[in-house]
Sequence to fold (421 residues):
Amino acid sequence: MLSFGIVALAQSRGWQHWPAFGSQSPYSYSFAGSASSQNQQTLEKSISFYQGRIQKNPTDGLDQAALANLYIQLARTTQNYSWYLLADRSAQQSLANLPFDNKGAILALAKIAEAQHDFATTVSLAESVGNPDALGLVVTAKLAMGQVEAATAVANSLAEQYPSLGSLTLRALTHEAQGQDDLALADYQAAIAAEEPSNTAGSAQTRVFLGRFYVRRGNYKMAQALYREALRIVPDYPLAHLQMAELATVKGQYRRANYHYHEVGGPIALHGLARIQALQGRSATDAWAVAETELRRSVAGNALGHRRDLAHLLLERGDPDDVAEAVTLLEAETVNRRDPKTLDLLAWALMAAGRWPDAQQAIHGALEQGVRDADIAYRAGEIEATLKHSQQAEQFFRLAQDIDPAFNDQTRQRLGLVKQD
Fold:
């Protein structure tokens, strides 16, 4: 028997009645102007400023910490992860110069650990800092580790003490992780109502998160409007371009998807471009190989935690010879990272390996966290059907349709959730 209630997972359908996006939408950006490449120019000027100060006084610890955090901002803005290497060097030098009461350097190291998907280290470092920015990292890291209740406790405390765009968005993510759609929506709306003109990146990010939420409920129109609004606020925002590319792919708008992937670049975008070629019926052998090479370079250098992304590519490409490696990669990843997406991919790899009871255990681990995700529910149905549990399988298939009425086999293929034919 299943250890969770399918009926409970199918609750909270109020999202179907949420208002359409428009001039009166609670999601419109209410401040004049937008951010652009000037953000990067401002960052580069600030970096140059602190580099000059450090040249004059190389033993200063605070300037090194400030520089480390600026490097991290630039890495996130440009998706050029080599900046994290410079950030780590500056943070370590900062601690060497100022080993006590140096929260700026420790916070930078926590952010670097998060980028590397070393979530246990992220939590340890961030908790030692203890300010709102650091506790925000604790929330996202605990969600990544599958510790939803612990993440929720921190998010609730943050939102109650410091109600802001950032803290309310974090609490929305914890509600979403538990399948509490109405509470998630309320917090997303409250977050946007609390936004300030000085945090354009945060305003764009919250809209992308909310757009992604709508995609998972089959409301592509609302999602696209939110992504566009995010790009209006920050026209070169990588996460918005990636989500726009994925949505365009799902809708079969491959030219538009290509545009957004090229705006981002990097291994994830290369994976998306290979998927598009395969979906168009063109030979994608070279495109898969290019994306694979970039992902392997990242995994080998431990620059970022791209093990899951590499495993996803191997599974989607569909070569049976890759299955064993995909299982190994994902089993290693789930030692520290047990969010629903990782467990879903592990279940897929175990299915491909013929390890059906293990796949069942993995997918149930995802569902028990409370997430409402049509693909996860559908994959659970496939596993139960193979194990001859027809009643449970049918319940999961119905749940997938309840979560996202637009969800079907074509959607799964366009999202890269099954192997390409």
The radius of gyration is 22 Å. Residues 38-56 form the longest helix (19 residues). Confidence is low (pLDDT under 50) at residues 1-23. Residues 212 and 243 are 7 Å apart (CA to CA).
